[in-house]
Design brief:
about 325 residues; alpha+beta; Cytidine Deaminase, domain 2; Serine Threonine Protein Phosphatase 5, Tetratricopeptide repeat; 6-stranded mixed β-sheet; about 55% helix; elongated
């Protein structure tokens, strides 16, 4: 947010959750981590099986070095209760302070911690996550909460129709251009790296200035990204205004041919993770690993994201590149 919002009540906190995640959760468990009263971390998982993953959630939270946690389950009481209470016990076992354990169902919330009828009636407390003051402030600050996780996935979905046909033709042309470059060069590797680095830098600059890549430019980018030194240059370039990189690699992922989508998906995941958007990072990695389950860089990043390693831990290793070994 442009400036931190002051959350004064449970309703305020719950109204903020969709804007932290990017969508309105359902059938979910959400953990909110605070450090000295400031919300610094959130993680969402499916409600189904949450109790079995309680130890995992406790380990993820511990890595974030937060001082307090709020646990929220979204769904019917019979499905929420076992999961959130198991997570509560797991956090207590690792000595993490839990401020509240909540259930949200049909626009009302219940606390498993509070037993006062004055503030926590048995029928639940109504709240408005759509038009309340916190939601309004989030929207003004430029945050978006889509209706569901599926709606976020659709934003990353491959394009279809005539645009897909045009991209297929452009990619065929880019393949021919690549062959010509390699065959006409004294040092094909050097020529390919130079052309690829130029394509990556131009694409980033175009995204920064607000102009889209045309089909031929984007197709060429997807082809040269297959060459690992070019992919690594794009990885190292993810810095500064991370929104630029998230926007660029989202568009490249959507328009890339399926077999060329792995590198853009991994780059999007890296940019989104560094920007604090674990939902987009996870979805992008799922796309990458569906196409190529053995793509090592995506697998390593998936372990980082699933393990709850904060982006700040990577920032501390700038200049160290432990992921440059083997087939990546």
């Amino acid at each position: 947010m442009a400036s931190p919002l002051t959350l004064r009540s449970t309703a305020d906190i719950l109204s903020m959750v969709p804007y932290l995640l990017g969508f309105h959760p359902s059938d979910s468990v959400v953990l909110l981590g605070l450090r000295r009263g400031r919300m610094v971390f959130q993680v969402r998982g499916d409600l189904l099986g949450a109790a079995d993953l309680a130890g995992y959630y406790a380990a993820v939270v511990t890595r974030q070095q937060v001082t307090d946690v709020i646990i929220v389950g979204y769904g019917p009481a019979a499905e929420v209760t076992p999961g959130v209470l198991a997570i509560d016990r797991a956090l207590a076992a690792v000595q993490v302070n839990v401020l509240d354990v909540l259930r949200v169902t049909d626009g009302r919330y219940w606390s498993y911690v509070c037993d006062s009828l004055d503030c926590c009636p048995p029928e639940g407390t109504p709240f408005d996550p759509v038009t309340g003051p916190v939601a309004a402030a989030a929207v003004v600050a430029g945050h978006v909460a889509l209706p569901s996780r599926a709606a976020v996935q659709r934003r990353l979905a491959p394009i279809g129709g005539l645009t897909r046909a045009d991209m297929s033709r452009a990619t065929a042309g880019a393949d021919r251009r690549l062959v010509e470059l390699v065959e006409s060069s004294v040092d094909p590797c050097d020529a390919l790296r130079g052309a690829g680095v130029a394509a990556v830098d131009a694409a980033i600059e175009r995204q920064r200035s607000g102009g889209p890549l045309d089909n031929d430019e984007l197709a060429w980018l997807t082809v040269v990204l297959v060459y690992l030194p070019v992919r690594d240059h794009a990885w190292d370039a993810v810095d500064g205004d991370l929104g630029v990189h998230v926007g660029l690699w989202t568009e490249v992922l959507r328009r890339a041919e399926t077999e060329l989508s792995v590198a853009p998906a991994t780059l999007l995941a890296f940019a989104a993770w560094r920007a604090g958007d674990g939902v987009i990072a996870s979805m992008a990695l799922e796309r990458a690993l569906t196409v190529d389950p053995d793509y090592s860089l995506a697998r390593l990043l998936a372990e980082v994201v699933a393990g709850g390693l904060p982006p700040q831990a990577w920032e501390a290793t700038r200049g160290v590149q432990p992921m440059r070994s083997g087939r990546v």
